Amino acid sequence: MKALIPLFVILPLAAAFLIPVLAGKIKGFDKYLASLVMLATAFLSLWLLFAHEAYPIIYKIGGWEPVNGIPIGIYFVADGLSVLMLCIITVVGFLAAFYSISYIAKFTGEKYFYALFCLMVAGMNGVVLAGDLFNLFVFLEISVIASYALVAFGIEKQELEASFKYQVMGGLASLLILLGIALLYWQTKTLNLADIALVLEGVGDRKFMLFTQFLLLAGFGLKAALIPFHAWLPDAHSSAPSPISAMLSGVLIKAIGIYAITRLFFNIFILDINIAWVVIVLGSLSMIFGVFLAIGQWDLKRLLAYHSISQMGYVVLGVGIGMLILARGGDLKVASLAIAGGLFHLVNHAVFKGLLFLNAGAIEYRTGTRQLQEMGGLYEKMPITSATSLSASMAISGIPPFNGFFSKLLIILAAVLGKFYLLAVFAVIVSIITLASFMKVQKYAFYGSTLRRELEKIKEVPFAMSFSMIVMALLCLVLSLLIFPGIREAILMPAVDSLMKMGNYGVEILGY
Amino acid sequence: MEYIIGVLLILMIAGSIYTLHAGDLLSAIVSYGIVGFGLVIIFLFLKAPDLAIVQLVVEIITLIIMIAVIRNSSKEDLQESATIKVEGVQYVNLKQLLYFSGAVVLALGLMYYFYQSVSGLDVFGEHEMRMSQVYVEQGAELTGSANLVTGVLLDFRAYDTLGEATILITAVVGILTILRIKGRK
Amino acid sequence: MTLFVLCFLLFLVGLYGVITRRNIIKIVLGICIMEYSMNLFLVLVGYVHDGVAPIITKGSERATFVDPLPQAMVITVIVIGLATTAMLLAIAIRLYRKHGTFDIREINTLKG
Amino acid sequence: MQSDKGMTIIVKKMTQVLVGIIVLFGVYIITYGHLTPGGGFAGGTIIAGAFILLVLAYGDDIMHLRVTKEGSSKLENLAIFMFLLFAIPGLFMIPSVFFRNYLPLGTVGELLSAGVIPLFNIFIGIEVAAALFTIFLAFVILKEEDK
User: Which of A224, A291, A227, A318 is nearest to A431 (CA)?
Assistant: First the structure.
């Protein structure tokens, strides 16, 4: 099982290198290879999830054993959290790739699209499996540069401008992260994450740690589009092709932003109370402002992009509460509940936000418009899209049978138990406003006024698109089973434990 | 030797301030090039010949591409200049001056905070290695390459270099998608 | 310590350029200047007094070497800088084709 | 051979003399990458510089530029694929290890030493040269299209 870990990066990379070369020769080669590779990695990650080996799995690249206790090579480290992220990336990646088989037919340069798609997924897999700080930065750059080009895929005036703004903000974020890495190397003289964790335990220099943590929080916060740094997200996610905005909103900002923040701040740095407060404030601000900005939107994809910011606020809030309780040495049970809520919502958000963007893409594919006023009464002509969009809307606004309800429940429960009553009230209010906003979407898009004349002849979207939407809608239901203790222990708890064990991440990996 | 690098660094800062305030884009790019070549000289002083070569050549290619972008487009920059001509008399543009002094004060504050938080670390030159102690002592035997930087790049951290080359491939495919003629069918 | 502070000042000059300049090419130049300061910062961290370049020649078997790890990192960061700069310039030239100007104010069609 | 495209005759003559030397220097930097300063990245960029000098000095009609762009883009993808291919054999050995240096290391300081590193250097050099040349051609073709 351990020997298969490099495949997560080799397979998408090999596909990405071959697609531009062989796309012309074999018809449809790029389309089906991309989906095939995504399916293969999805099976691999699900097998890794259910094979349930003893985490963390450590893979020494190049076979370099540590020399007198100091690791000298780059390590792949797959523990509970990274395997959970791998599953989200590859499953949502496969559904988006399968969806784009017919969606991208309307664009030119298809081979470039699939090559960039495979590179983005390879980059994210590399980030999630990285056990080395600089290696995490390099693979973060691969997936981010691929997403810059994918945002500007349609080369319209709006998309170019959105991609330029995204590139400048992303470039700044990468430089802040690089400055953080240089400072950490200057302090700890090593790049291996576990080694940094061990060396940092001995360092009492609080002022240096605060400065570095603020830098890294700013850099990764900008990648995760938390409130003060969210300016690029609505433009980038609304002007990208729909499968790509499903991947961006659903997976990229999580695998790069939230995963890196949780990995660094829980396992590497010593938990600090004011950093935890900053994280909680950022999370709740994102949650509140995201939904208020979203209410006034009439462009469907911009509305969904703003909702991404507010839902990410939930995830950061859950993780932030867990961080604060751990930093204060409070009740471990509540902390693990908060982190479980945060990660569970992260998984759910990847699925239902991806589905909402795919629905928006289906509507755009058939009616050619994204404005809610120009739609109306689509449920007669597009039953599958309206049904899946209804389930996704109910999931995002937290209506019981769907997965969104359970994860928000966990977060609010943890907030109440941890005596953050104000935050719990905010969470409930935001959830209600989200419900109102998505009622508006359903009314205008599907069930509102009668179908306009020129929309008479539209029919349901082709098989590739409807299949992905149906599978995602089913996932919205299936994932709510994660709330039951039996299943939760198997899937969600390893991820929570990998964060809960905090400091001795280093000890476990380097074994001393 | 530290003073020479300090002087070069101050000249680079002056060059980059001119780059950002130059009226004509072409002179901005040329002064950006000078800052880059200053960096090459500093790399040589810091005993990094590998970097000097790579930085020099990449610098030239970046300049060629930038000038290719500039050549058939607008040369002038519509930036408000710091001084306003009112009937031929130079008045200092107060709004611009306010922004500039605010930026200087903020920069000084950030540098002081940076200096405070970094003062506890190793001074320039006293760098006792931990991870690269092995690279320096056993690098040649373990990898067989005399050039330790290439040894680190292509053997100890070869996976980084695979990521590195993939970044260049991603950039090329990205540029080919952005520069294609028509986006939608 | 002064060299590190000066290097951070170069970083802030680049950041000032990216935030305040309105011309796209100057924003790209600002990002490149920040890349330069990061390259310099990494090499400054790895310098050892009277160290020798990390290449083993006949004479320098047992000399004290400068740290090769930051130098390997900087080669990677230089090529990352080249990749991001080339992408930014590609977008800049396309925006110039569509808007006829490099000025960010005219290009700001997107609201919010 | 006096065509109006490209620069003046003096530049063309100088280019004829210089291009060979630049490419030779680039190849030297790549192949001696593990002995003297330099390596795949530096050498590849130098070779790309030589080709860019050729295109700048002589200029070329758009059709030919497009064909060379396709060719160099394919070459670049093949070179990086070969780099990945040389990293994979380690997977099939007993303690399956990605990026193992499985060729004999030889004595330090000789040309044929350091196992797989010279091969990696060569493939990285080809890949960087083809990549930068493709980027340059993409910019030139975009400019040519407007004429």
Answer: A291
